[in-house]
């Protein structure tokens, strides 16, 4: 009888350890996906800002309208990038705070 109890206890313990590892892996995979999306979005925004800043510097004295337009794009892009950065960091925090609720915050599609 005690051998059967021991075997069942080991099986239950092994199952729990397996489930714990599986949950950790899911959380790690989600964090990596969010980090990749965050990197892609920030890199895209910074590239656009860099190009527009170059345009503004290049045409600033001769064509102030184009320079102003480029600066407007820089302002809009940087604001949107900051909003998306806050949103993605919120997702990371949600995964840390409550993994079950984090699944409801899944972004659907690209955000840039």
Automatic annotation (TrEMBL):
This enzyme's EC code(s): 2.7.13.3
Enzyme class: transferase
UniProt keyword terms in alphabetical order: ATP-binding, Kinase, Nucleotide-binding, Phosphoprotein, Transferase, Two-component regulatory system
Record-annotated Signal transduction histidine kinase subgroup 3 dimerisation and phosphoacceptor domain positions: 30-95
UniProt catalytic activity: ATP + protein L-histidine = ADP + protein N-phospho-L-histidine
Coiled-coil features, chain-numbered ranges: none
UniProt protein name: histidine kinase
């Amino acid at each position: 009888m005690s051998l059967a109890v021991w075997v069942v206890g080991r099986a239950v313990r092994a199952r729990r350890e397996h489930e714990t590892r599986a949950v950790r892996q899911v959380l790690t995979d989600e964090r990596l996906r969010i980090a990749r999306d965050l990197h892609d979005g920030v890199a895209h925004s910074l590239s656009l800002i860099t190009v527009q800043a170059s345009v503004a510097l290049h045409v600033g004295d001769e064509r102030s309208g184009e320079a102003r337009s480029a600066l407007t794009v820089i302002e809009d892009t940087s604001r949107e990038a900051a909003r998306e950065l806050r949103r993605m960091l919120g997702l990371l925090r949600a995964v840390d705070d409550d993994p079950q609720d984090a699944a409801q915050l899944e972004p659907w599609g690209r955000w840039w």
